[in-house]
């Protein structure tokens, strides 16, 4: 089983557990690396200096037992927010603007997403998805991220409230175009198991058809649980590893500090 996670939320943002509780849970699971990635979004964000001090101190506390990294999940619409000191960045798209330019969160509730679709896209979910992927295609340029977070978050509620076919060319074409644009930058992607491990979706981000396409692009891949509680630090990893293997990967990536304290990306073989 994979012994690392780099998409981790705590009480500094919208997580349920403290960084200390997360670190102790990671140790109990036999983790080798744990990356914290608190939100810096338009609506969920942290006291960045306090977070940086806290995670940096925790890294020293666990030195030799657990390699702790201080990252951030930076939303494309909060680009420019000072996150000096972050050791890595997960770039995510959580919002789209409505007709008046007001940002609508795509993962808060289905009602909000449907209202956005009706009010701004004439009820055409494929137009909404196309706009989302056009926005997602800019996430590396906007955030300078190391890892592209939950690539197809637009499908967050599609399992519970199906409004579009995720195998339809009207959905897949703009998604693949965005994925290609991002892969060219050299940024890594994550297989995000958050919605899967919280029983909110019966697939990962990216969903399997897009995951297969991602493999054809030779993009580096992380497996992350998007944990908001200590119980889910490794949530969905077994199934995620099987999905990644079935799509053609024989390794995934992790981040670690080298002997000089620099964060480096390395590959670990699938078990």
What does the model show?
The chain has 271 residues and is an alpha/beta fold. It has one domain (4-269): TIM Barrel. 34% of the residues lie in helices and 20% in strands. The protein has nine helices and eleven strands. A seven-stranded parallel sheet has the order 1-2-3-4-7-8-9. The protein has a two-stranded antiparallel ribbon with strand order 5-6. A two-stranded antiparallel sheet has the order 10-11. Helix 6 (169-184) links the parallel strand 7 and strand 8 (188-192). The longest helix is centred in the middle third of the chain and has 16 residues, at 169-184. It is globular, with a radius of gyration of 18 Å. The model has no long low-confidence stretch (mean pLDDT 96).
In angstroms, what is the radius of gyration? 18 Å
- Number of helical runs? 9
CATH topology: TIM Barrel
| Count of discrete domains | 1
Overall pLDDT confidence: 96
Largest sheet: 7 strands, parallel
Query: What order do the helices and strands follow?
Result: EHEHEEEEHHHEHEHHEHEE
Structural class: alpha/beta
CATH class: Alpha Beta
Q: Return the CATH architecture.
A: Alpha-Beta Barrel
Task: Tell me the CATH superfamily.
Answer: Metal-dependent hydrolases
Number of strands: 11
The percent range for strand residues is 15-25%
In the sheet with the most strands, the strands line up as 1-2-3-4-7-8-9
Low-confidence stretches: none
> Can you give the helix content as a percent range?
25-40%
Distance between the termini: 7 Å
Approximate shape: globular
Concise account of the structure shown:
The chain has nine helices and eleven strands. The protein is α/β, with parallel strands linked by helices and 271 residues long. The strands form three sheets. The protein has a seven-stranded parallel β-sheet.
